[in-house]
Amino acid sequence: MDAAKLKQIIFDALDEAGDQEYALDHSWIHLGRLLVEFKKTEGWRDTGYQSFDGFMEELRKKYKRGRTQLWQYLTVAETLGETIEGPVLEEIGISKATVLKHALKKSEKSKLPLDLVVAACHRSVTAKELRVLAAEMLNIELAPDKGSWFDFDGCYMTPEERKEFKECVMMTEKLLDLQKDLPDHIRRKEVIFAWVREFFGTHATEVYGPQETEIDYSGSKAL
């Protein structure tokens, strides 16, 4: 194949992959808005469920989505939907909307600056850049690394297991929108704790039973 033609095919493939990731990021915030509406109108009651939580549990089992993940979509849309119009929120997407939700909560303000919302709508602005911008506009501090060093040790893996592990890490980094310039130890921590929170949120009730205490379903912490 001609080198120039092959180069263009590579460019086209990456453009298509990027568009798919972009669309997926925006579809989750759309789902969150639908869940908010279903909860607010008590649609779960009209469709035969004993509780909204029972409806969410069916979604978890039927579509293999983590409990924490589903509640994150809902709470982000619920929190920001009070001050940001639906179409704008969907333009922002779930990754950056999650950043805005955490920033709003930490700032203890009732709404976000318009300039911050406008910046979030720009596709060229990453979630990490938005987080820095939010810290500057809302005068909040970026959380420093805390705690003492923890060694995760290691284990032996077959070539097939290594391939499976690396693919899962890469997928998780994309979903969390972790940028390449992050220190390796922060990237490892965010990936591992995303797995921890997802697994715990999905299976904790199976092990410990229903919990009376309130659980924060906001998802993994912002970097």
Query: What is the end-to-end distance?
Result: 44 Å
Order of helices and strands: HHHHHHHHHH
Structural class, by secondary structure, is mainly alpha
The residue ranges in which pLDDT falls below 50 over 5 or more consecutive positions are 212-223
What percent of residues are in strands? under 5%
Rough outline: globular
Count of alpha/pi helices? 10
Helix content class: 55-70%
Q: What's the pLDDT, averaged over the residues?
A: 81
Q: Give the strand tally.
A: 0
Gyration radius, rounded: 20 Å
Largest β-sheet summary: none
TL;DR?
This protein is mainly α. The chain is built from 10 helices and no strands.
Keyword list:
single chain, 223 residues, mainly alpha, globular, disordered C terminus
Detail the topology: elements first, then pairings:
Blueprint: H1 3-40, H2 43-46, H3 52-63, H4 67-80, H5 86-92, H6 94-107, H7 114-121, H8 127-138, H9 159-176, H10 184-208
Descriptive report:
The chain has 223 residues and is mostly helical. It contains ten helices and no strands. The chain has helices at residues 3-40, 43-46, 52-63, 67-80, 86-92, 94-107, 114-121, 127-138, 159-176, 184-208. Helix 1 (3-40) crosses helix 5, helix 4 crosses helix 6 (94-107) and helix 9 crosses helix 10 (184-208). The relative contact order is 0.10. Residues 212-223 have low confidence and may be disordered.
